[in-house]
Amino acid sequence: MGRDREYVDNAERQRAYRERKKAQEAWLKQELRSEKLVKVLGMLGSDNAGVRDNAALQATRILKEAGLTWYDVLGMKKGLLKK
After folding, report:
1. N or C: which end of the chain has fewer CB within 10 A?
2. Which tens digits make up the pLDDT trace of 10-52?
């Protein structure tokens, strides 16, 4: 989307980034409250390995469609967990 376009200057690039982040955060807050993601995450505790695998794939797919990562969900920066 906006990541592939050329910007007039750095200020425009930063504005676009902030708008994208704000939209992602708004979506994330809404989606985290939704029953769908909550149910999918609840299935991660299943005793059935197939159910757990499917739940993980579904949750990741939901995030991918929104352009988010698990780092975004957890509010962490990439590389924070490296030893």
Report:
1. C
2. 888 889 889 988 888 888 777 766 777 788 999 999 999 999 9
> Token pair 């159910």 is at which residue?
51
Intra-chain end-to-end CA distance of the chain, in Å: 34
Q: Is the pTM of this model over 0.90?
A: no
Q: Which has the closest alpha carbon to 72: 35, 34, 20?
A: 20
Q: Domain segments of the chain: what residues?
A: 2-73
Residue 77 exposed, middle or buried by CB count within 10 Å (0-12, 13-18, 19+) = exposed
Query: C-alpha angle 9/12/14, rounded to 5°?
Result: 110
